[in-house]
Amino acid sequence: MVDEPAFIQSLRALATHPAARGLADDAAVLEIGGETLVLTKDMMVEGVHWPREQSLADVAWKLVAVNLSDLAAKGAEPVGVMLGYALGANDAAFLEGLREALDTFGVPLLGGDTVATPGQRTFSLTAIGRATHAPVPSRGGAPAGDGLYLCGLVGGAMMGFEALTGLGEADEAPFTRPTPLLAQGRALAPHVSAMMDVSDGLLIDAWRMAQASKVTIRIDSTAVPLAAPEARRGDALRWGDDYALLFTASSDASLPVEAARIGTVDAQGEAALQIDGEWLSGPEGLGYQH
Amino acid sequence: MVDEPAFIQSLRALATHPAARGLADDAAVLEIGGETLVLTKDMMVEGVHWPREQSLADVAWKLVAVNLSDLAAKGAEPVGVMLGYALGANDAAFLEGLREALDTFGVPLLGGDTVATPGQRTFSLTAIGRATHAPVPSRGGAPAGDGLYLCGLVGGAMMGFEALTGLGEADEAPFTRPTPLLAQGRALAPHVSAMMDVSDGLLIDAWRMAQASKVTIRIDSTAVPLAAPEARRGDALRWGDDYALLFTASSDASLPVEAARIGTVDAQGEAALQIDGEWLSGPEGLGYQH
């Protein structure tokens, strides 16, 4: 999975509206009628974002969960979702998973579109949320001197994926049924200087936060809380899909939820990221890029 | 192209939120912070919603236009769009068409998602609008006694499609570069009892309006203004993609924009639709169903 940076950069160049953080920052933030709306849109493609072994009920759940995770990272509460659905086999399973996710997270389905596709199916979801704190956290606000924290674990989705695809034995749920940390995101929003969800891997996402904040982030890899065996620590830091919240906050902040301190924000140095004292100059090999 | 009614019905059953008109009525209507938001989502699939001959610049334009047409039918002004884009060939052409459409209609790109797809590409767009009139028009409000009107022409997209695919000679633009009637929709909103855009064909959409309003709609087919030769009138009434506005209003209403009276709303009779005195009991053969 390789980015097409020219296209993305061109899209960003098109997105000149002040609300248009959605291409660089997972969610758009829009002031309207005295409220601050947060809008996210994530797509999932058959054979790319889910393996053949995964049931469509789980795919539906995940489609909802990954979008709500983007809202969680903004401290936003969900208002509703719009579904884009490609009809095909196992529609009933998709519906069941969709119903479970919407019920579990208390989010209404507002509308959407269905289409017939001849090939791989693509599902998309737009989630609309209401910000609960201003300013709305972004990945670009981390100042030198702050601590780097992780709320949640990493590695569980990797273990779950391996179990699902017959490569290991573990609970599949962290991969198939991730939980967006909505309550934690809302609780944290007033306390953080920067926040994002870890969707593509802890290291690549930390690298993005450092780039957006124009700082260097130093990570102590042994401090990262794992949902995987210690022997898999290196892999767990590079695997995505865990939807933990990565954030920065003042070192003396009294945090309202449990979070592990995993690093420090420094003034911009030789590179964006330093892991256990080693510089990492680019995003190559750090995680899932798209 | 056949519906999967069971799935759609199940989705609608899931959409129990008062704002969830989006599955039955093209757009969701959401009260938030003293504003009324209108949300629409349309997808376009390669090989289904556009022919091989169509440039991706035109596809991008159309993706924006069809969503804005849903806002037009609600009398809403666009606030922004979120794009779901499958990367592939001719991304630059897509970008150019997207830029032209956003510039022409004065709508900002707020964010979105890009994915890689191995097969047919699916694009999706969510448009966010702000209602300018309350109540927001829907397709369900037509009362017996009102007149049925059309703002815009039908048949032009059919002629354009035929020209594009080498079957005829005509201006391709009505098919490739449709114009959402945003100003007309806003002007009409305070005057209409029901309104929708004609996306799938005049007859099928009139049938849907009659069903939603629990009335019978009688159409005088000779009164329908055409952008096609008279000999093609029957086809033009069944072809979609014209994005005219179909609405009902009191017979003595002073309409702020040009519109043709093409029929009458009656109390629910033998069937939902009567064309030139003939009953049409079901939607079969009336237009594009999806």
Average pLDDT figure of chain A: 90
The chain pair forming the largest interface, with residue counts per chain, is:
A-B, 68 and 68 residues
The level of helicity of chain A is 25-40%
**Spatial sequence of strands, sheet with the most strands of chain A:** 7-9-6-10-8-11-12
Let me know the largest β-sheet of chain A. Answer: 7 strands, mixed
Q: What's the CATH H-level superfamily name of the largest domain in chain A?
A: PurM-like C-terminal domain
**What is the name of the CATH class of the largest domain in chain A?**
Alpha Beta
**Separation, N- and C-terminal Cα atoms of chain A:** 6 Å
Order of helices and strands of chain A: HEEHEHEEEHHHEHEHEEEE
Number of helices of chain A: 8
Portion in beta strands of chain A: 25-35%
Q: Which CATH-level-2 architecture of the largest domain in chain A? A: Alpha-Beta Complex
Question: How many structural domains are formed by the residues of chain A?
Answer: 2
Low-confidence stretches of chain A: none
Oligomeric state: homodimer
Radius of gyration of chain A, CA atoms, in whole angstroms: 18 Å
- The beta-strand count of chain A equals 12
